[in-house]
Design brief:
With 263 residues, the protein is an alpha+beta fold. The protein has helices at 4-13, 20-26, 41-51, 79-85, 135-149, 213-220, 230-239, 247-253, and strands at residues 17-18, 31-40, 55-58, 66-74, 91-99, 104-112, 118-124, 158-172, 177-188, 192-195, 200-207, 259-260. It has a single domain (4-260), classed as Hypothetical Protein Pfu-838710-001 (Beta Barrel). Strands 2-7-6-5-4-8-9-11 form an 8-stranded antiparallel beta barrel, surrounded by 6 helices.
């Protein structure tokens, strides 16, 4: 079984680097269309070959592959999970994301509007705990939901799921698209942890119109987008809740049984 992380490391090593400052200076993607794909390591290698040198790889502090950990917040009855499962036109996710290789911590609110586009809002959260929302954080969430979707913040929000994974980010040199490539995903809920297959890559193509070069190549290779999120997959796998839209992805992505997690 080919290790997708090794394949991605090879892909990243062969591309010219781009700095985070350069990405932020040219990016137009805080409001964007995201398309996700679950591919094999072999398909990832073919995609990278066809993309060629049109893309660069994000490099920070000499690194081209980075470890991220996120904590997702939801209500006791999993309101945001149900919004995604029911494919509500207006939905959102709330998380803290920590860049373990030196990028700090952020509080992020991702909004999905009626147009189908994704708007990501975030503020630095280095002084806040990764698994809790301070009053300032709750106020920011309330303001973001009211301003972006005209929705009220739920009264009760708590940590529901953590994710840990490695990411390589490929950047279109024009600034019009990015492709994040994630491997080694582990989801946990404080009691159990579940690891994904090592030969799979979860891709997310981000572009203004939703039809970037990566999308066109994958379509030509017979790969179709999947409507999933790490949060929804992790909750479905660990909590045993209804997950009809994602059963095929769950079968191919989470082959192992959950293991007990230390408290």
């Amino acid at each position: 079984m080919t290790d997708a992380g090794i394949v991605l490391a090879g892909v990243a090593a062969g591309l010219p680097p781009v700095t985070l400052e350069e990405v932020l200076a040219t990016s137009r993607l805080m409001s964007r269309v995201d398309r996700k794909y679950l591919v094999s390591a072999a398909t990832m290698a073919r995609l990278a070959a066809e993309l060629g040198d049109r893309f660069a790889v994000l490099r920070i502090g000499g690194r081209r592959q980075f470890r991220y950990t996120s904590t997702y917040f939801d209500t006791p009855d999993l309101l945001t999970y149900r919004q995604h499962r029911q494919d509500r036109r207006l939905r959102y996710k709330i998380r803290t994301r920590t860049y373990l290789d030196g990028g700090g911590r952020w509080l992020e609110v991702k909004l999905k509007g009626a147009s189908g586009s994704t708007d990501k809002h975030r503020i630095p959260y280095d002084t806040g705990p990764s698994d809790a929302l301070t009053q300032e954080a709750l106020d920011y969430v309330a303001d973001t939901l009211a301003g972006g979707l005209r929705l009220a913040r739920p009264e009760s929000l708590g940590p529901v799921l953590s994710t840990d994974y490695r990411r390589v980010t490929l950047v279109d040199r024009s600034g019009s698209a990015r492709l994040t490539c994630d491997t080694g995903l582990v989801c946990g809920d404080g009691r159990r942890a579940l690891a994904t297959r090592h030969d799979r890559v979860l891709l997310e193509s981000k572009s203004a119109g939703g039809d970037a070069a990566a999308d066109r190549i994958l379509r030509r290779l017979g790969v179709r987008p999947v409507s999933v999120s790490k949060y929804c997959l992790g909750v479905a796998a660990l909590h045993g809740v209804t997950a009809n839209p994602w059963h095929p992805v769950l079968r191919h992505y989470f082959p192992r049984q959950p293991a007990r997690q230390g408290r």
